């Protein structure tokens, strides 16, 4: 198929009628400079908050970066797709990275002007503009479709598109003729479909998406890149029906990094060096998997950068049934080991390329505008009857932007196609209190498909309100050939109201809706697939807090394919399955908010079999204040295959304060404690980062190895412990504001019980407990001596850092350091700053202020704090010292062990002035919660269980604990008791 052949490429042959849309009026002859005309249309659309822009067929030469503002969608129209052209040797595109089209994070009103700081202006803008912010985790709905990119000769720094946005952002139906340029895409986000990359140094060059979740690429191809089709790291790259041809390397993962990489039906042709280059071996964040890949002229399927090992193909042409590398688990209740698995066979020749994962929509000539059929879409008229007549009499319906109020179920025919172009601007809305949707009863749908058939719903927002107890937004019974894509289930974060304002689901304390009549979790699931339903579900976002679940699949064995679906902020469940078989979930992303989702699970799987879940990101925000037992709950489930699982609790702060802009994520103390719990067999999976786990019908329990003693329990969330000179343990149960003590002589005691928000403890040589409290903008530090009256307390103010001869420095034992938002790529060295380098850089930075204990023998450096919300008890504070499970202490000049959670790795480093730590050396490829060292130099690392290493980093054994260990401390009168704090209990063992 020729690169410019329009016959088989979906597009808007005619611009659909839409009173909200703006059309670009440029020259389009490939010679005139059309930059200003295109940008003017984008700016005008952004004045409305969100918008649709049509670019008619033509060749549009641009000479500087175009900015697509948040919520804008730029569509090419015409019989031949329009093309954005960068002429030969265009000034500004010769050095560094220089991008033609940039998805921005602020609109033209907010983004222009010198006042205030803007977080992370894209450095690749031509010309650079410090007043414009990069797209970020809050950039929703932005898209570009049906527009080609062409880069002329003499532009070695040129990139087609910078795409760093979040949910419902996409690129579709685009060709990138990169030619002399650097890459077609630089930075990626969410989902892309039907992209073709020709030439260039890379097709895609990227690091982690700004929201830190997955990037899914569907039905796309690469050919003729000079270095690699894709160069990336931590993109959580999910590929379906992607081909790579005539390149040295298919996928090149950067040195020092891993990725959650999953490929289904990937095709490698004439790849001279390796289909995939894998870096960062034996690290939990390196999770690589392929299913049903085929290759020809590709002698090496996988090459390992660090060790030099290679996995050869089975012949000139071969099929890879499955390839996996990473932490591989023998079963539930076990810990993993690093393995490479390859199941391949030689074939005579490559088979034809598979059919599209995402079916093409009908041609625009077949679309019928619902406004021509008496439908109003004004938000007040009841459009129910008119819409149902339209569905009954026309197969393909187009919805211009508007709000379509309905008061009864819309019933689709087996072949109905509903099309919108913007799911935030084009919503079908069920008013609150609609009769028939109230009280106890079976689910009543806003839209219900016919059983079987090949119905399609795309580009629409569905809103069932907050006072419609029986409502489910989409009841789907359509067959395997059906499609639901680019649909937003409104009602939570990112919802746009009729007046243009953003919907706020919270009261002042974030504990309920501001309207007490609206009950969180009080409606049926937003998307319910049942009664033999199936099909393809792609690029969906369902954060409706009022719904019981984001997606519920029940009573079906019809195959289902879910690609890049974001299900968030539900009270109980994000994805639920009951009596289901033959489904796959590729790149499902879940996020649990601190207010509504404290008890939610990512997946609740019951009575199900033959399910694949790959590239799962199960995430709880930093603001979370409550522990949760599991991300995935299994009950009577069999043949459940998990591939590439990432269970975390980090939160990006893409904001600025008086100290500058945040450039990394913060970690929470409350990720899911276990990735998976099988309730039927009472087995749990402690590993939260792994590549492979298969769950059979009757998993066998590993042998019990009790080696610890439970000392106390029933805590809400214990952490922040310290041991005094006599070996007595003190620790915090933050939820109750209580500071406990423990010793063999006294047992469990309560040392303080005051509403002072204690978080972490340390102790000076005089025996004063130093308490870090979460109260105040930067937290508060105070001190008291155990055994003194409750009224005895000294607040310690921060003071400028200064030398303290012989004093101990207290440092957070676990940190999360993972570069976000700010580009890590240095084009002058062709190097991405690695996680280890970022960790070393940040740890080497001395802190300007410190807290000095009453006797001057201990210093707590004042690590930087960030704040969200009010500075009183309603807000949240984040910082390394606040987020840690505890502190470690050491004198300046001595070495200390620290855990970097963002790598699951333990380091040792040299303590210096101002809390700096230099000369960081990797110690163990396990890490996360805590680390402790005994008198013989043995090192204990908490990472699902307690792993024991000798002083040289060689694993010596393991201490199994009935609950997930969080903080480890050596104490007791002889300092030979290892205290192990979990969320809810205190354990110990003799060493």
Give a verbal description of the structure.
Strand 70 (866-868) and strand 71 form a beta hairpin. The chain has a 25-stranded mixed sheet that branches. It has a 19-stranded mixed sheet that branches. Among the domains are: 1-201, Pectate Lyase C-like; 710-817 and 851-910 and 921-990, Neuraminidase, CATH 2.120.10. It starts with 21 loop residues before the first strand and ends with a strand. It has 991 residues and is mainly β. 4% of the residues lie in helices and 46% in strands. It has five helices and 82 strands.
Strand-residue proportion? over 45%
State the secondary-structure class: mainly beta
Oligomer: single chain
Radius of gyration based on Cα positions: 28 Å
- Helical content (DSSP H or I, runs of 4+): under 10%
**What's the architecture of the domain at 710-817 and 851-910 and 921-990 in CATH terms?**
6 Propeller
Q: How many helical stretches?
A: 5
**Low-confidence sequence ranges:** 1-8, 111-115
Biggest sheet record: 25 strands, mixed
């Amino acid at each position: 198929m020729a690169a410019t052949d329009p016959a088989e490429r979906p597009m808007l042959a005619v611009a659909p009628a839409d009173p909200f849309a703006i059309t670009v009026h440029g020259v389009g002859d490939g010679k005139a400079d059309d930059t200003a005309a295109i940008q003017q249309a984008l700016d005008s659309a952004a004045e409305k908050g969100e918008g649709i822009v049509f670019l008619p067929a033509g060749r549009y030469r641009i000479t500087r970066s175009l900015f697509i503002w948040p919520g804008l969608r730029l569509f090419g129209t015409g019989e031949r797709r329009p093309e954005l052209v960068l002429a030969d040797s265009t000034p500004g595109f010769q050095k560094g990275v220089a991008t033609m089209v940039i998805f921005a994070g602020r609109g033209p009103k907010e983004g222009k002007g010198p006042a205030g700081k803007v977080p992370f202006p894209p450095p690749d803008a031509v010309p650079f503009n410090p007043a414009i912010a990069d797209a970020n985790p809050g950039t929703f709905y932005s898209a570009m479709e049906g527009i080609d990119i062409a880069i002329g000769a003499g532009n070695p720094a040129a990139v087609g598109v910078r795409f760093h946005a979040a949910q419902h952002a996409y690129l579709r139906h685009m060709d990138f003729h990169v030619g002399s340029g650097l890459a077609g895409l630089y930075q990626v986000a969410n989902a892309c479909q039907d992209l073709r990359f020709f030439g260039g140094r890379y097709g895609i060059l990227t690091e982690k998406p700004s929201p830190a979740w997955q990037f899914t690429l569907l039905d796309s191809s690469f050919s003729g890149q000079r270095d690699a089709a894709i160069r990336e790291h931590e993109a959580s790259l999910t590929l379906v029906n992607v081909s790579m041809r005539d390149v040295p390397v298919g996928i090149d993962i950067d040195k020092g990094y891993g990725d959650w990489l999953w490929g289904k039906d990937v095709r490698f042709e004439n790849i001279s060096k390796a289909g995939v280059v894998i870096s960062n071996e034996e690290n939990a964040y390196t999770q690589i998997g392929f299913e049903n890949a085929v290759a020809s002229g590709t002698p090496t399927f996988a090459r390992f950068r660090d060790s030099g090992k290679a996995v050869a193909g089975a012949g000139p042409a071969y099929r890879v049934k499955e390839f996996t590398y990473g932490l591989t688990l023998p079963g539930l209740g076990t810990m993993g080991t690093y393995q490479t698995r390859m199941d391949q066979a030689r074939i005579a020749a490559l088979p034809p390329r598979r059919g599209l994962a995402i079916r093409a929509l009908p041609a625009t000539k077949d679309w019928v505008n619902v406004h021509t059929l008496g439908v109003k879409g004004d938000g007040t008229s009841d459009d129910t009857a008119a819409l149902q007549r339209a569905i009954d009499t026309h197969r393909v319906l187009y919805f211009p932007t508007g709000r379509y109020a309905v008061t009864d179920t819309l019933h689709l025919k087996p072949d109905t196609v509903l099309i919108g172009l913007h799911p935030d601007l084009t919503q079908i809305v069920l008013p609150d209190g609609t009769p028939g949707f109230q009280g106890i009863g079976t689910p009543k749908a806003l839209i219900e498909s016919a059983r079987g058939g090949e119905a399609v719903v795309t580009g629409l927002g569905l809103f069932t309100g907050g006072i419609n107890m029986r409502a489910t937004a989409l009841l789907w019974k359509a067959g395997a050939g059906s499609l639901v894509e680019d649909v937003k289930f409104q009602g939570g974060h990112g919802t746009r109201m009729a007046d243009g304002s953003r919907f706020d689901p919270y009261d002042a304390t974030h504990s309920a809706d501001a309207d007490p009549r609206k009950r969180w979790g009080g409606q049926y699931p937003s998307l319910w697939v049942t009664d033999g339903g199936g099909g393809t579900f792609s690029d969906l976002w369902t954060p409706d807090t009022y719904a019981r679940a984001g997606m519920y699949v029940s009573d079906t064995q019809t195959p289902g394919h879910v690609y890049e679906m974001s299900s968030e902020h539900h009270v109980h469940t994000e994805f639920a399955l009951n009596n289901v078989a033959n489904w796959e979930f590729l790149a499902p992303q879940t996020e649990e908010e601190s207010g509504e989702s404290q008890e939610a699970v990512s997946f609740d799987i019951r009575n199900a079999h033959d399910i694949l879940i790959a590239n799962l990101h199960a995430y709880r925000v930093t603001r979370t204040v409550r522990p949760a037992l599991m991300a995935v709950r299994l009950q009577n489930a069999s043949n459940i295959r998990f591939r590439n699982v990432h269970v975390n609790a980090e939160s990006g702060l893409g904001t600025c304060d008086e100290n500058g802009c945040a450039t990394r994520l913060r970690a929470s103390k409350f990720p899911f404690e276990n990735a998976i719990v099988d309730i039927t067999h009472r087995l749990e999976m402690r590993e939260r980062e792994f590549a492979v786990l298969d769950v059979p019908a009757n998993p066998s329990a590993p042998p019990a190895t009790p080696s610890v003693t439970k000392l106390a329990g029933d805590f809400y969330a214990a952490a922040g412990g310290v041991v005094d000179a006599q070996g007595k343990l003190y620790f915090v149960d933050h939820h109750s504001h209580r500071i406990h003590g423990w010793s063999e002589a006294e047992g469990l005691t309560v040392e303080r019980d005051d509403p002072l928000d204690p978080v972490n403890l340390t102790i000076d040589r005089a025996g004063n407990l130093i308490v870090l409290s979460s109260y105040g903008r930067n937290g508060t530090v105070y001190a008291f001596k155990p055994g003194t009256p409750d009224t005895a307390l000294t607040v310690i103010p921060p003071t400028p850092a200064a030398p303290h001869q012989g004093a101990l420095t207290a440092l957070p034992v676990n940190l999360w350091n993972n570069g976000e938002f700010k580009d890590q790529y240095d084009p002058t060295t062709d190097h991405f700053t690695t996680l280890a380098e970022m960790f070393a850089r940040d740890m080497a930075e001395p802190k300007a202020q410190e807290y000095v204990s009453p006797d001057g023998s201990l210093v707590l450096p004042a690590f930087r704090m960030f704040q969200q919300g009010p500075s009183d008890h309603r807000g949240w504070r984040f910082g390394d010292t606040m987020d840690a499970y505890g502190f470690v202490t050491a004198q300046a000049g001595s070495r200390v062990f620290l855990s970097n959670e963002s790598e699951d790795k333990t380091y040792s480093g040299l303590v210096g002035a101002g809390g700096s730590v230099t000369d960081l050396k990797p110690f163990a490829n396990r890490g996360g919660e805590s680390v402790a060292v005994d008198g013989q130099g043995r090192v204990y690392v908490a990472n699902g269980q307690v792993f024991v290493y000798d002083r040289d980093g060689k694993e010596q054994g393991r201490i199994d604990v009935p609950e997930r260990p969080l903080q480890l401390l050596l104490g007791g009168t002889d300092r030979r008791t290892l205290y192990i704090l979990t969320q809810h209990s205190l354990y110990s063992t003799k060493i």
